[in-house]
Design a protein that fits this description.
Chain lengths: 146, 471
């Protein structure tokens, strides 16, 4: 059963949004609505991942159920950036998340803040591209009972 | 030249997938539910986007590397459309009984959920709900306008609900769909387990102790969180299933788990079967109004409703040490988590779940009472349904309509049909007055006859509902 989250479209979509995020942080222009969507989407993804990262670091289980997506988002970021950042991952994630949140509120970023967020997204993009290039065809899995 | 070959090949596959989608658009879908055609609209939109990428790749002056990337994206989108046609398998009127989709859809809507649904039946002994999120499509750059229109027509996340087809598509088991709806409701509740901090600390202590004092790695913590969240979602969905379908959900879940030979049933996605069974049974024994569900059952059938009435074969959990040893043999090691770590996680979660589950049930009930109290299948209603329909059903009169508190008749709803059906199946099947047409086991024959009567009840109550314009 192909699951949408592991489908080629998911990797295409994630790559597009990361590429466009990097383009925005590099100062290249995109259409206004696309730029707004990309910043909002990435800010939300990193904010969720950051929250998930905090819960994971604190070894907490009883996060509100609405934050199940936080664990998923952190799992995604962890998968792509664990090798690149190791123990610094949570700190880098927090910084990038803050920068994107501020950008989505139309605040100005200092050059180091912008660069840090750009590096974070760029690193994730690089890792995603590497992952996708060598992605094996997913094995069919039995769906869960109930 | 080679890029031109790639371009033509991509166009060829887009065209083939488009034909396949076009054929599916011409089919009829049971109950006239709109989900399948809305989903096909999304797939068509993806194909249009894919085609627009191919056109874009022809733009003069683009470097080869960029053209390759655009064509690669185009082929991935076409391939995704093809893969996602699979979601449609089992949605046709030939796969799913047409009269069943209506009540299932109504159950879904009555619980306040507005999502687009895709009901399907598959040759798999499984009930499942899978949400499909819009974000995956929204992230795609330069979507065709048809994709945007199709995405806007769907109420996201689209919920794909799968039931078993053919031999395992037994109507009484469809009470399990209430559990699947529970999964969709799960995210609507703000769960609060803050009072269980001590139990959580004990859990982490047992994990650490079982791993010789080692501090769990980030990989293991993520694994633990994932299993924990899945188990809570399962228990909460059981709670919603019980609230919406009453004893029928208990009988359906236990009967289905036994029928598929589920055994102990503990896994990364599901808590053990006997824990789930115990939790629901505890609720069936709780007194309310006319008495507990178990008392009503006994009063109307003369038989006791025991915990394992239709699930004697379900495996019982062994001691924690033995469970860890057994699971460590059975669970595969991952790249960063060992079998033993997985086994320790699952075994240590059992006492934690036992501790917090009553709170899960209480919060699920509070939620339903707040949004739609009439959705709760109560003990009073169970008594009323059995009073009104059990005896006639034994005379082969299906429960088509029922009387409300104002003594007006109204179409019998799904929960009524399921509950009366289960009581007849478990306690009164030998009294079912159907003519024996062929040699063989009479109980099997009566079981089939009862199944037909229940399907007829659903069909006629749906017809009555349509005829009288009852929503």
């Amino acid at each position: 059963m192909p699951e949408i989250s592991s489908s080629p479209a998911a990797s295409v979509g994630l790559r597009h949004v990361l590429e466009d995020g990097v383009a925005i942080l590099d100062g290249r222009s995109l259409g206004a609505s696309r730029a707004e969507f990309v910043i909002r989407d990435l800010a939300s993804l990193l904010e969720q991942a950051s929250k998930g990262g905090q819960f994971t670091k604190a070894r907490r289980l009883f996060a509100p159920a609405a934050d199940a997506s936080a664990f998923e988002a952190f799992g995604l970021v962890f998968r792509y950036l664990r090798d690149a950042y190791g123990d610094d991952l949570n700190a880098k994630l927090e910084n990038a998340s803050l920068a994107l949140r501020r950008l989505s509120s139309s605040e100005n970023l200092s050059p180091p803040e912008r660069q840090a967020a750009r590096d974070f997204l760029g690193q994730m993009l690089e890792s995603l591209n590497r992952d996708v290039s060598y992605l094996r065809q997913a094995e069919p899995t039995l769906a869960h009972i109930q | 030249m080679s890029l031109e070959v790639s371009r033509q090949a991509t166009r060829f596959f887009i065209s083939r997938v488009r034909s396949q989608v076009g054929e599916l658009l011409l089919q009829d879908y049971p109950g006239g539910h709109p989900g399948p055609k809305l989903w096909l609209g999304v797939l068509n939109g993806l194909l249009d986007t894919s085609e627009s990428y191919v056109n874009q790749s022809e733009q003069h002056g683009l470097p080869d590397q960029q053209v390759s990337q655009i064509l690669l994206d185009a082929s991935k989108l076409a391939r995704t459309s093809y893969d996602l046609i699979e979601q449609m398998a089992g949605t046709a009127a030939t796969d799913l009984h047409y009269s069943v989709v209506g009540p299932l859809q109504r159950w879904f809507e009555q619980s306040g959920l507005k999502n687009t649904t895709l009901f399907r039946a598959q040759l798999v002994a499984n009930y499942e709900i899978a949400p499909v999120d819009r974000t995956f499509f929204d992230r795609i750059r330069s979507p065709a306008s048809s994709l945007e229109d199709a995405l806007n027509a769907v109420k996201w996340p689209l919920q794909r609900i799968t039931v078993p087809s053919a031999a395992f598509g037994v109507l009484p088991h469809y009470a399990i769909v209430a559990h699947e709806i529970g999964h969709a409701l799960f995210g609507e509740v703000t769960w609060d387990f803050s009072q269980y901090q001590t139990e959580e600390d004990i859990f982490w202590g047992s994990v650490s102790a079982a791993l010789d004092g080692a501090v769990p790695s980030t990989d293991l913590v993520l694994f633990i969180q994932e299993v924990h969240n899945s188990w809570i979602a399962e228990i909460a969905s059981d709670a919603f299933g019980y609230l919406m379908a009453g004893p029928a959900f208990f009988f359906a879940l236990c009967g289905f788990l036994e029928a598929v030979g589920s055994g102990v049933g503990i896994s990364e996605s599901h808590p053990p079967n006997d824990l789930r069974r115990d939790l629901i049974f505890d609720r069936l024994q709780a007194t309310n109004g006319v008495g507990a569900f178990t008392e009503v059952f006994e009063r109307k059938t003369g038989q006791s409703l025991s915990r394992n009435i239709n699930s004697t074969l379900i495996g019982v959990l062994p001691s924690t040490d033995l469970l860890i040893a057994n699971l460590a043999n059975y669970l595969p090691s991952g790249p960063s988590i060992s079998s033993k770590e997985k086994a320790v996680t699952l075994a240590s979660l059992v006492p934690l779940m036992k501790a917090i589950s009553p709170q899960v049930y209480n919060q699920a009930e509070e939620f339903i009472r707040k949004i739609k109290p009439e959705l709760i299948y109560s003990q009073d209603r169970f008594l009323l349904d059995l009073d009104m329909h059990l005896e006639p059903l034994l005379y082969a009169i299906p429960p088509v309509e029922t009387r409300n508190s104002s003594q007006q008749t109204e179409p019998a709803d799904f929960a009524t049909i399921l509950n009366v059906g289960w009581v007849a199946l478990l306690a009164k099947l030998d009294q079912l007055r159907v003519r024996s047409g062929r040699k063989g086991d009479q109980q099997i024959e009566k079981g089939e006859a009862l199944h037909s009567l229940l399907l007829k009840a659903v069909e006629l109550s749906e017809a009555k509902r349509a005829w009288e314009g009852v929503p």
